[in-house]
Design a protein that fits this description.
Layout (H helix, E strand, L loop, with lengths): L2 H21 L1 H5 L2 H6 L3 H26 L6 H10 L9 H20 L11 H11 L1
Helix pairs in contact: 4-6
Amino acid sequence: MDTEDLISFTDQLNDDIDDLEDALRLLITGTLSDAAQRLPLLDRAKLYALTTYAIESIIFCQWPFISTAARPSLIFEAFVRLNGINAKKHPIFPELTRVKHYFEKIKVVEFGEPKRENISLDKPAVRRFLKHDF
């Protein structure tokens, strides 16, 4: 890697961090509950769910340095699989699943239930199945 490339990557990282600080200024300068009080109920639920996921991600990103656990989400699963550990049996998996369920609930409230196709019973097929089964 060239020194100029490294300098440009560092400058880009610095700009990205500045943009992130600007976007999160409300959360950085005050408490989470103060920021949530100003939001509508749906946005408040999104804020709490995303904050929970972000905090857990930060905590579990530190785990490889203090234990044998791994990072959440895809990085978590890749790390666990590479180390021969069953991701579904890892203690973090239920917690990640719980937070994902909250994301799904928020999505249903925001966009409504997904439309289901009308499923009808194929009576001739049922008759054939029952006739040949017995």
